[in-house]
Amino acid sequence: MDWDAFFKLHDELPREGPGTDGDVLWAAELGGVPAHARILDGGSGPGGDIAALLQVAPEGRVLAVEMHQGFADAVAKRFEDDKRVTARVGSMMREHGPFDLIWSAGAVYFVGVAEALNTWRKALAPGGVVAFSEPCLFRPAPDDAVETLFEGILPDDEAGIRAKVEAAGYEVLGTRRISDAGWEAYYQPQEARIEMLRQGADDALNAVLDEAEAEIAVWRKHREDFGYLLCVTRPL
């Protein structure tokens, strides 16, 4: 992967994964997140979920932590006039809290469900919850294109994700699938940027654009086979 080319595509996108404001509101209501909540947006990308998090906790604060400087800069610029939002470059696993809500859209996948939940336990305030979205297999025998997309290592099904949550000593308060609208909110801006970048793209950038288009095509054709599962969890 040419990371310069990857971020040339992704740095201008409004969000870095599928989801809608409704997902945030649903998770927060289920978790009983208070209006004054201290929130960690772990792996925030450019901040696509922060407006909804502030809607959930209008009297609270959001700390957006992101490994990529460009995304953290995008958050800082996007919310430069809102003192409730702080953007930080770093690992979402190194924040100490305490947080009433840890929200992580798609980023737990890179750490592991059990490791993330075990690490975050000590960062949660009493009664705090962790809400995360995770790749999930919806059918036991997906099309070969899905297996290729995941490089031969298929994601867990819902039962497998629940088992990892429970093994970490958490209870599952509820789950729901990220909707088609959530996926299109991520993919449609990406498609527009791909089209814009094609003219004059070098080989490295074209390879990244081709890979992105292939991913979009696989999801649209096989979205009954896989997607993201949003999980709301609390330590036992």
CATH architecture assignment name: 3-Layer(aba) Sandwich
Helix content: 40-55%
Spans where pLDDT lies below 50 across 5 or more residues: none
The radius of gyration computed from the alpha-carbon positions, rounded to a whole number of angstroms, is 18 Å
CATH superfamily: Vaccinia Virus protein VP39
Name the CATH class. Alpha Beta
Shape: globular
First CA to last CA: what distance?
Answer: 40 Å
Number of domains: 1
Write the layout of secondary structure elements.
Elements: H1 3-10, H2 21-31, E1 38-42, H3 50-56, E2 61-66, H4 69-78, E3 85-89, E4 99-105, H5 113-120, E5 124-137, H6 144-149, H7 158-167, E6 170-177, H8 180-198, H9 203-222, E7 226-235
Parallel strand pairs: 1-2, 1-4, 2-3, 4-5
Antiparallel strand pairs: 5-7, 6-7
Helix pairs in contact: 1-9, 2-3, 8-9
